[in-house]
Design goal:
Helix content: 40-55%
Number of strands: 12
Radius of gyration: 22 Å
Strand order of the largest sheet: 3-2-1-4-5-6-7
Organism: Ciceribacter lividus
Number of helices: 16
InterPro entries: EryCIII-like_C, Glycosyltransferase_28, GlycoTrans_28_N, UDP_glucos_trans
Number of domains: 2
Keywords: Transferase
CATH class of the largest domain: Alpha Beta
Protein name: UDP:flavonoid glycosyltransferase YjiC (YdhE family)
CATH architecture of the largest domain: 3-Layer(aba) Sandwich
Largest sheet: 7 strands, parallel
Pfam family, one: Glyco_transf_28
Distance between the termini: 22 Å
CATH topology of the largest domain: Rossmann fold
Length: about 450
């Protein structure tokens, strides 16, 4: 069968869907992933077809000065995100219809699930929703930015906040879908109060995170399946540089530090703090610069810090003593799977949520606000992750997560719902996987 997957965002929003696509391709299905061109190489490198879908958040994160200062936690930033989404959506009806040509099933992830849903309505195709975070109201705190004390509210209050969060998310997404996508596809707008108003649905929802980290809520309908994380096969072909190999072998396990796609951190200050802590304590660091991330200038002469640009998490993190990161879903799960504690400096979005979950599971100390990162706070957090009790908790959590096979569970659920057929007998419309970007 031919499956088209829609996803946009940072690499952390695309990589898990590539992992799901690789699993489906191994079952004989033909997979197309529609995403921003910045992730085209990630898609085609794993033998999947790529189609363009406007979603360039990388340049926005680099170019918007307000985003650098505030993240997406203020009403002003929510308005900026709403306007950005509406602008990107101008291309989506045309791009989406091209990507869905000849598809038997559409899968929509995150903020573009409703694009897949609308195209499925237009073409009379089945559709499934995927989310990499728990987006439905539950007894757990919602993903909206909250004061730290609100992470200790009772379940009923959290469900109320979760419904409010869904309403706020729809207010950001509505202009893109009601004014651009739905009319562009010749469809009526979604009826009030909008498609995010309740927890019931006719379509399957696959949540691609670990039920160990966030157990499913007992009030969720049976259309929701929490599968476990969608992780690409281990990077067996990765070869580290001689310099990285030498650094890893020359002393005790270092501490990883990286902030992925987050540009709205004070990179110079954070790098300087780590450099001073390294010199004062003798601790070793592997610093990942990323495409948002940290700066390497100040620590060029520090032998205790080794700088890398991109090393696969599944290869590097098991060799680390702990990980300092922003708390994105992908990095949080990677550190937890590696069995190492995390020190989380959340920036925006779902990151405080994952920081809270790892802390509750004993695999992280309290998060450090980026505006409050000091040498003293970092050293306190480093002492916490070196505590044997936290190291045991992180190691046990890693063992549990590594036993999960989220991709296999997701595929089994799609098969059980009759959305895909096991071992398709014929692929008469097969094309060459990895054919590269289309000309649409």
């Amino acid at each position: 069968m031919r499956v088209t997957i829609f996803t946009i965002g940072t690499e952390g929003d695309v990589r898990p869907l590539v992992a799901l696509g690789v699993g489906l391709a191994r079952k004989g299905h033909i997979i197309t992933i529609a995403t921003d061109k910045s992730c085209a190489d990630l898609v085609t490198a794993h033998g999947l077809n790529y189609r363009p879908l406007s979603g360039d958040f990388r340049s926005w994160m680099h170019e918007d000065p307000d985003l650098h200062k505030q993240g997406l936690s203020t009403p002003d930033m929510a308005r900026k995100f709403r306007d950005r989404l509406r602008m990107l959506a101008e291309d989506w009806p045309r791009q989406g219809m091209a990507a869905a040509a000849d598809a038997d099933l559409l899968i929509g992830n995150g903020m573009v699930f409703l694009l897949a849903d609308s195209i499925a309505e237009r073409l009379d195709l089945p559709v499934a929703e995927t989310q990499l975070v728990p987006t439905l109201p539950s007894r757990n705190p919602p993903l909206m930015p909250l004061p730290r004390w609100m992470y200790r509210l009772p379940g009923a209050a959290n469900r109320l906040l979760g419904r409010l969060s869904r309403r706020l998310v729809w207010s950001v997404m509505a202009p893109a879908y009601q004014e651009v996508v739905r009319p562009g596809l010749g469809l009526d707008p979604y009826t009030a109060p909008g498609p995010l108003s309740g927890i019931q649905s006719r379509h399957l929802r696959l949540f691609g995170y670990s039920p160990t980290l966030v157990p499913p809520d007992p009030e969720w309908p049976d259309t929701v399946q929490v599968t476990g994380a969608w992780v690409l096969p281990a990077s067996s072909e990765y070869k580290p540089s001689p310099e990285l190999t030498t650094f890893l072998l020359s002393g005790p396990r270092p501490i990883y530090a990286g902030f992925g796609s987050m540009t709205n951190i004070d990179a110079d200050a954070l790098t300087g703090t780590m450099a001073r802590v390294a010199r004062e304590t003798g601790r070793r660091f592997v610093l990942a610069t990323g495409w948002g991330g940290l700066q390497s200038g100040e620590i060029a002469d520090c032998p205790l810090i080794h700088v890398v640009q991109h090393v696969p998490h599944d290869w590097l993190l098991p060799l680390m003593a702990a990980a300092i990161h922003h708390g994105g879903a992908g990095t949080s799960i990677a550190a937890a799977r590696a069995g190492i504690p995390s020190i989380i400096v959340p920036v925006f979005g779902d990151q405080p949520f994952w920081a809270s979950r790892l802390q509750r599971l004993g695999a992280a100390p309290p998060p450090i606000r980026r505006s409050q990162m000091t040498e003293a706070r970092l050293q306190k957090a480093l002492r916490a992750v070196e505590d044997p009790a936290m190291q045991r908790a992180a190691a046990e959590l890693g063992q549990r997560l590594r036993r999960e096979d989220g991709v296999d569970t997701a595929i089994g659920t799609l098969e059980a719902w009759g959305l895909i057929r096991s071992n398709p007998a014929s692929l008469d419309r097969q094309t060459t996987p990895g054919a590269g970007p289309s000309s649409h």
